[in-house]
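Continuing the series of single-chain predictions for the mutant panel. This is the parent chain; the variants come on the following pages.
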Amino acid sequence: MSLMKILVTFAVIANAAMPALRAQSTVACSKMTGPSTDHATMDHSAHAQMLEDCGPLPASPGQAAYGAIAEIVRLLKADPNTDWSKVNLEALRQHLIDMDDVTMHASVVQRNVAGGVELVVSGAGRTADAIKRMVTNHAKMLDQGGEYHASATPTADGAIITVTAKNAADARAVAQLRGLGFAGLMTEGDHHAAHHLAVARGEPAPHGR
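Parent structure:
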């Protein structure tokens, strides 16, 4: 049989099989909904195989804290030097709860002062405690950097933070600082990812948790 005939025969067979393959894929993907996908009762191995059969998957885990913890777990498992006797993922979970409380539930009143801002950050219950844990220590870290003078004074329901540019004569730096406000300043320092890994490893936490 010539090469051309072999190729034609292969194409005919493949085209004939395609509807059945599509039907199988459709059946597999149709099983992705309904009672069989209940997380408590599903066959996780079979579920994973069905996911592979259904094409590209979303990269997001759907919940930020879940994704942050999953990423740390992957790093810990990939590191042969991880001391599992010290690992404390619950401490990381509690810190992420603090982050959520401070970011999403704290009330902030911002007032311009010479060279920067004064931020009155407050909350009720657990949010007030989270502010005291995170904000006062973060102010210390900001102050150690090259851009800001920062200090924080705890209050009954949170903290008062004062942040000014180290070069108060730099109008752009002062405007940037004020534009960042509380939420932006809390992200400054680029240390959060390393901090999360340290918390998970059971190392001392600079934010108090």
